[in-house]
Structure formats: structure tokens, C-alpha cells
Write a structure and sequence with these properties.
heterodimer; A: mainly alpha; B: alpha/beta; Rossmann fold; 6-stranded mixed sheet; 3-stranded antiparallel sheet; 36% helix; binds adenosine-5'-triphosphate; binds magnesium ion; transport (chain A); MetI-like_sf (chain A); transmembrane helix (chain A)
Chain lengths: 255, 273
């Protein structure tokens, strides 16, 4: 009984807010042009889902997000590992990277539009740029803070550089890498929303901007909620992965 | 398996008959000639000549910071000498046990022991060897667990299993029992003595505990001012009885050297430096 109450507790406030929102909207306290009732948003979602428009837009946005993450995250991960392991590589690349980091990646939007127009490349480039730094910095930090004593043990016990990396360095850096990944996921959606809102001919951001022109407030609210849901989904996925790979960690063992 | 691990307990008379040589490769000798080691401009060891015959149990004692760990690490090749020659077993024939267990927290106990298995074995064989080594230290039933759930003494036993699984001919021990409570220490000392007798490797034990050195070693050396200040044979039958008059006499001799004439000189030197 106690346990049930505990698991329901986090949902009480959101559920209450939705009920309140519905009641106020139905009573006409909130104008439809400001905020449509939850039922209207659901109806809009149903309409767009039936026409297939919703799925197409979710799909294209997700594809952009994940492609950008794979490219920017992949490069960040590789450079983080290289610079954590090799002083030479770090000397060569880290100062330049730190310099680029001072530019907010969204400030690049006008330039990116000039370079790539408004096609896919522009959005993927922005996402990749946005997720690069959290993954790079946290991977680098993770590799650097691997316990030296364990590395020495590995060497003393005859591990080859490849084995040392796979058995000692990478697992030791993993908790930090996950911090970077979860941070990057947030930036990934944020960047995509901004990029799609400013310039796109498909995707959730485009759907929202298009709906705004036709005063379809329910679709705008729907798009916002879907963004939130996708963000939550990505975070939960990362959390699940984290829990699966860090099951040795005392912080995850007990839970 | 746990009682088996304790059957070599120092006070038990049956321990003497527990000698087995099934998988043993025997000990390997160690020879240091004119060994010197300095870090930057700071000399730590100088002019060390030391011959350790195969299978001997040598204990190294001395003040904190006198260079015991440096000597040990040079013997197993973790530090290279600044001058002189080191001749000792290498690769999987030489193993070191550190003061900390240094287990990989993300690897199960059995996989931690597998780290010590020499290359070229199949995964199944390596696992089998690791399990056998765990049984030897009385932890066969913990093979599948994470290191974080073990006690300090159990972690050190896993580290011992990892060191022993390759059947080394030289085992270097850098105060591996330093962090353990008194009772666990005595148990671990008995375990160490038992595996040493069974496998016949050459053992070099660094310790700050003179009575531990005298309980276990065939020979005790004292490092002072970067050189061997005392080198005494401990020709006493095993298992040794703690607090016997012979041990007390040797302990007195070592402590005299440490605190007697040496102490005031050292204090003077340190205050000048
Ligand atoms: N990597 C290193 N770089 C510089 N100095 C070092 C290094 N390792 C050891 N030293 C110095 O060498 C001296 C001897 O150190 P060592 O660790 O061998 O002492 P020890 O006898 O093992 O001491 P303890 O009993 O406290 O472990 C110390 O003064 C220490 O500061
Ligand atoms: Mg030391």
C-alpha cells in the first residue's frame, strides 16, 4: 500500500495540472486562441496521426537528431579518448577545440544557412556541433581521471595497450562519458528545435511554425509536448543504458 | 573451502605437512648489483648489492620513506634503476601485490583474477584457472560477485589469487596487509605462508611490522639511508610461535638498529635538510 502511494506520488502534480487546465479551458476561463484544452490537443494529435503527417515529421526530426548525435558525438568521443591517452594529440588539438568552444553553436545559424542553405546538412551540422563539446569534454575528463593505480596494475600484469584500454581505461571513463551523453541529448533536441523553427520544410519545428501561420494553436501545443516526450524518451534510454553498463557501480547496485 | 584456507594457520601443527608441489614452477633467484635509484636529484637507494636465492622468503623493513617500495618496484621492473643491474624473473613469472587490492571495480571477482592468467589460454581455461586460484584463498563461492561487496581482507585475498594464478616464481609484496585489522592480518600471514610453502616461489615482502617480518621470513633486511643496514637470517622452525625468546631477541636487534644509534643521526639530518 505504501509502495503504491510512493510510485503514484510523482504523477500527482502533473495530473492535477492537466485536470485544472481542462476544467479552466472548458469553463472558458482560458481563451482557445491562447491555450486550447487538453482534449483539443489530443484531437489534433489524432487528426495528424491519421493523416500520417505527424509520423513523417517525428521521423524526420528524430533522424536529424540521431544523425547529428552520431557524427558530433562520435568525433567528440574519439577525440576525447585520443587526447586523454596521448599528450601529443592533446597539445595539437585541445587549444583549438577550447577556442571553438567559446562560440555558442547557435550563433552559427546565419553562417550555416549561408553555407548549406536550409537542407538537411545545415540542421545535422548544428546538432553535431552542439553535442560535440559535452561528449568531448566528459570523455577527456573520464579518461584523465582513470585511477593511475589500476593502470599501473594492468601494465604490471602484462596487459597490452589494447587490453588496457578495453579493460581499464574505457570502463573507468564510462561514468563520466554517460554524464556527457545525457547532457548532449538535451542539447541535441534544443538545437534541432531552434534550427527547425528557423528554417525547415519538414520536421516537428516546421509543423509548429506552419501551424502558427494558420493559427492552429492546438498543433503548436502538440508539437511542444512531442518535443518534451522525445527528450524524456532519449534521457530514459540513456539512463537505461547507463544502468546496464554500470551495474558494477555501488550507486547502481543497490537500486 | 574457507576452513581449508585457514588450515595453514601459524599455530596449527598440521601446517608443516601441507607441502604440495603439484603445479609449482619453483622459485627464481634475484640478484641486484650496485643498484642505485634516484628521483630527479633526490637519491633514494645507492650501492645495493643483494642476492636472493631461489625460494627464499625475504622481508624488507625500514622507516617510512626509506625506499622499501622503490626497491621492490625496481626488483619487479616497475621502476628502472638509475645505476647497477637487476637480474630477476619477468613477465608472468614475476608478480606484485600492492598495498591496495587494486581490483577492477567493473569486473566480477573471477574476472579480476583472470587478469593474472598468462595470455594464450582460452577463456574457459582462464576462468577455470581463476576459479582454482580463488579456491586456494578460500573465496571460491564469491567468484561471481562485484569487488565492492567484499571486505578489505577478502579484497586482498582476491589480489593474492590474481598474483598466484600464473604460478609466479617471484612474488613481490608491498605491505599488502598494512591496512588490515590485527586478526585478519594474522589469518592472511598464515595464508601467505601456506601458499609460499606449497608453491615454493621466491617471496619479497615489504613491511613496516618487524614482528610480521620475523613470523614469516627466512631473512630480514633493514634499509636505512638508501642502503642495507642490517641483513639477518631467521633460522627458526615453522610454524613460528609469536613471542618466543628467539624472535624477541631478533626483534630487539632490529629495533635497536632502527631507534638506537640510527635515530638521533637521522633526526639531525632531517632537521638540516
Ligand atoms: N615516483 C617518484 N617520484 C619522486 N619521488 C619518489 C617517487 N617514488 C618515491 N619517491 C621518493 O622516494 C622515497 C622513498 O619512497 P618509497 O615509496 O620507496 O618509501 P617506502 O620505504 O616504501 O615508504 P613507506 O613505508 O611509507 O611506504 C620517498 O622520499 C619518496 O618521496
Ligand atoms: Mg612503500
Amino acid at each position: 500500500m505504501r509502495l503504491e502511494l510512493k510510485s503514484v506520488l510523482p504523477f500527482l502534480i502533473p495530473a492535477g495540472l492537466i485536470v485544472l487546465w481542462q476544467v479552466l479551458a472548458s469553463a472558458g476561463e482560458i481563451s482557445q486562441s491562447v491555450l486550447p484544452a487538453p482534449t483539443q490537443v489530443v484531437a489534433a494529435g489524432w487528426r495528424l496521426a491519421l493523416s500520417g503527417e505527424l509520423w513523417a515529421n517525428i521521423w524526420i526530426s528524430t533522424w536529424r537528431a540521431l544523425t547529428g548525435l552520431a557524427i558530433g558525438g562520435g568525433i567528440g568521443f574519439a577525440l576525447g579518448l585520443a587526447n586523454g591517452a596521448s599528450k601529443l594529440s592533446e597539445r595539437l588539438t585541445d587549444p583549438s577545440l577550447q577556442m571553438i568552444r567559446t562560440i555558442p553553436h547557435l550563433a552559427m545559424i546565419p553562417l550555416v544557412i549561408l553555407w548549406f542553405g536550409i537542407d538537411e546538412t545545415a540542421k545535422i551540422f548544428l546538432v553535431a556541433l552542439g553535442v560535440f563539446f559535452p561528449i568531448y569534454l566528459n570523455t577527456l575528463h573520464g579518461v584523465r581521471t582513470v585511477d593511475d593505480q589500476l593502470v599501473e596494475m594492468g601494465r604490471a600484469y602484462g596487459m597490452s595497450p589494447a587490453t588496457l584500454f578495453a579493460k581499464v581505461v574505457l570502463p573507468g571513463a564510462l561514468p563520466s562519458i554517460f554524464v556527457g551523453l545525457r547532457y548532449a541529448l538535451g542539447i541535441m533536441w534544443l538545437t534541432l528545435i531552434v534550427a527547425e523553427t528557423i528554417s525547415a520544410s519538414s520536421g516537428l519545428g516546421y509543423m509548429a511554425m506552419n501551424a502558427r501561420e494558420f493559427m492552429l494553436v492546438d498543433v503548436v501545443v502538440l508539437a511542444i509536448l512531442i518535443y518534451a516526450a522525445l527528450g524524456k524518451l532519449a534521457d530514459s534510454g540513456a539512463k537505461l543504458l547507463e544502468r546496464a553498463t554500470l551495474s558494477w557501480h555501488p550507486a547502481y547496485v543497490s537500486r | 573451502m574457507t576452513d581449508h584456507a585457514l588450515s595453514g594457520f601459524a599455530f596449527s601443527p598440521s601446517a608443516a605437512s601441507a607441502v604440495r608441489t603439484v603445479h609449482a614452477r619453483g622459485g627464481a633467484p634475484v640478484a641486484l648489483r650496485g643498484l642505485a635509484k634516484s628521483f630527479g636529484a633526490k637519491p633514494v637507494l645507492s650501492g645495493i648489492d643483494l642476492e636472493i636465492p631461489a625460494g627464499q622468503f625475504l622481508a624488507v623493513v625500514g622507516r617510512s620513506g626509506c625506499g622499501k617500495s622503490t626497491l621492490l618496484r625496481t626488483i619487479v621492473g616497475l621502476e628502472s634503476p638509475s645505476a647497477g643491474v637487476v637480474a630477476a624473473a619477468r613477465g608472468d613469472e614475476a608478480r606484485i601485490m600492492f598495498q591496495e587490492p587494486r581490483l577492477l571495480p567493473w569486473a566480477r571477482i573471477v574476472d579480476n583474477v583472470r587478469v593474472g592468467v598468462p595470455g594464450g589460454k582460452t577463456k574457459a581455461d582462464a576462468r577455470e584457472a581463476a576459479r582454482a586460484a580463488l579456491a586456494e584463498v578460500g573465496l571460491a563461492d564469491r567468484a561471481g560477485e562485484w569487488p565492492s561487496v567484499l571486505s578489505g581482507g577478502q579484497k586482498q585475498r582476491v589480489a593474492l589469487a590474481r598474483a598466484l594464478v600464473s604460478r609466479p616464481r617471484l612474488l613481490a609484496l608491498d605491505e599488502p596487509l598494512g591496512a588490515l585489522d590485527a586478526l585478519t592480518r594474522i589469518e592472511m600471514q598464515a595464508l601467505l605462508e601456506r601458499v609460499w610453502r606449497e608453491q615454493g616461489f621466491t617471496a619479497v615482502l615489504v613491511t613496516h611490522d618487524v614482528s610480521e617480518a620475523l613470523a614469516l621470513a627466512d631473512r630480514v633486511i633493514l634499509i636505512e639511508n638508501g642502503a642495507i643496514a642490517l641483513d639477518i637470517a631467521v633460522d627458526l622452525p615453522r610454524p613460528r610461535r609469536r613471542g618466543s625468546p628467539e624472535i624477541a631477541r631478533l626483534e630487539g636487534a632490529i629495533l635497536d638498529q632502527l631507534f638506537g644509534n640510527g635515530a638521533s643521526e637521522d633526526a639531525l639530518k632531517e632537521s638540516v635538510a
